[in-house]
TrEMBL record:
Residues 11-178 form the SHS2 domain. GO terms for biological process: cell division. It holds the Pfam family PilM_2. SMART domains: FtsA. This is SHS2 domain-containing protein. It comes from the Bacteria. The lineage of its organism: Bacteria, Pseudomonadati, Pseudomonadota, Gammaproteobacteria, Alteromonadales.
């Protein structure tokens, strides 16, 4: 199996994150889809550190439990590696080149394209269509990651009884969800000629993603995320953040926590604004059509409100469950929708072609 591959079985995405694993199953329904299965299970602390799996056997056991909890019988899955572990570059090649010739060209130019020895990486490529300024040329998106990053996830999934048909990249999965959801949930943002700023704020990291004309044009990954805030509010020091997050979502912070929260939000915004500055220093257009929040950070009203105060553009916490109907048995997950943006993109990935 290459880094990527075209899966024939529709619709099951598995998101392996630092704090939880999630499953989401889609079925085609006319020109849309229906969410038929969705589940989430927490992961033990430090099971995934710096996006590297420290205990494959334990992760596999949790994935087995996730499979049972979801009730899905689909075995062929789409998963992803972190954007911090992958690189993507665009190259121009002649329209006449077939897949084999393109692969040969990539390998011949691997030293310039991929900052790792070619023997240590998995890579794949996708044609993005005709090059806008070079007649007779097509744009090719080359994505590569270290083999160990792919193999550890594949091993855990296969031990859990899954068959990995596609290994994607988290930023591309988020892109796919945004491209599908925003025309329904925020058509005014899609109608703008300006790019969209996506802030993927998890417990352990912040990923800044810029989407222009339906493509990722900029990414920046920084460690930290919500963890400094949660640590500061963790009076017991046990690193169990679920109760703290529940209080923050409900606005039950207490007056003695206000200064801690304010300082943490200020520091988090400093991270984000630095990424924005780096992007805009070379951007052809200034400003954004809107700011899209995804992941755990998007579930915190105080964070959304704070970002809204710092930026002129509209701010939207993206919740896939505002578009898709959920069965009553999954209604408890509705408020957690921003955490399912990536796994939705992975499930959607089952319906789009890539190389085998």
């Amino acid at each position: 199996m290459g880094l990527f591959g075209l899966g024939k079985t529709p619709g099951l995405g598995i998101d392996i994150n630092t704090d939880a694993v999630k499953a989401l199953e889609l079925l085609p329904q006319g020109d849309s889809y229906q969410i038929t299965r969705v589940a989430e299970l927490p992961l033990p602390k430090n099971l995934i550190t710096d996006d590297e799996i420290t205990d494959i056997e334990q992760l596999s056991k949790t994935l087995q439990q996730l499979r049972k909890k979801s009730g899905s019988t689909v075995k062929e899955v789409v998963a992803a590696v972190s954007g911090s572990q992958a690189i993507s570059k665009q190259i121009a090649v002649g329209n006449e080149l077939d897949d084999e010739a393109i692969a040969e060209k990539i390998e011949s130019e691997a030293e310039a394209l991929i900052p790792f020895p070619i023997a240590e990486v998995r890579y794949d490529f996708e044609s993005l269509g005709e090059h806008p300024t070079l007649p007779g040329q097509q744009r090719i998106l080359v994505t590569a990651t270290r083999t160990v990053s792919v193999d550890s996830r594949v091993e855990a999934l296969e031990q859990a009884g899954f068959k990995v048909k596609i290994m994607d990249v988290d930023s591309q999965a988020i892109l796919r969800s945004c491209n599908y959801l925003l025309p329904h949930l925020a058509p005014e943002i899609v109608a703008s000629p300006l790019p969209v700023l996506v802030l993927d704020i998890s417990i352990t990291a912040v990923q800044t993603i810029v989407i222009a004309q339906g493509e990722v044009t900029f990414t920046r990954f920084q460690t930290g995320g919500l963890q400094p805030l949660l640590k500061a509010l963790d009076d017991n020091g046990n690193g169990e953040y679920r109760e703290i997050l529940a209080r923050l979502r409900a606005g039950e912070t207490g007056s003695d926590s206000s200064l801690i929260i304010q300082d943490s939000l200020t520091n988090l915004w400093s991270q984000v604004s630095r990424g924005i500055q780096i992007y805009q220093s070379n951007a052809p257009k200034k400003g954004f059509a809107g700011v899209i929040l995804v992941n755990t950070g998007a579930m915190l009203p105080m964070l959304s409100d704070y970002i809204d105060q710092q930026i002129d553009e509209p701010v939207l916490s993206l919740n896939p469950f505002d578009h898709f109907e959920l069965a009553d048995s999954y209604s408890h997950l509705r408020a957690h929708g921003p955490r399912f943006v990536e796994v939705l993109g992975l499930a959607l990935r089952s319906f789009t072609p890539w190389h085998t």
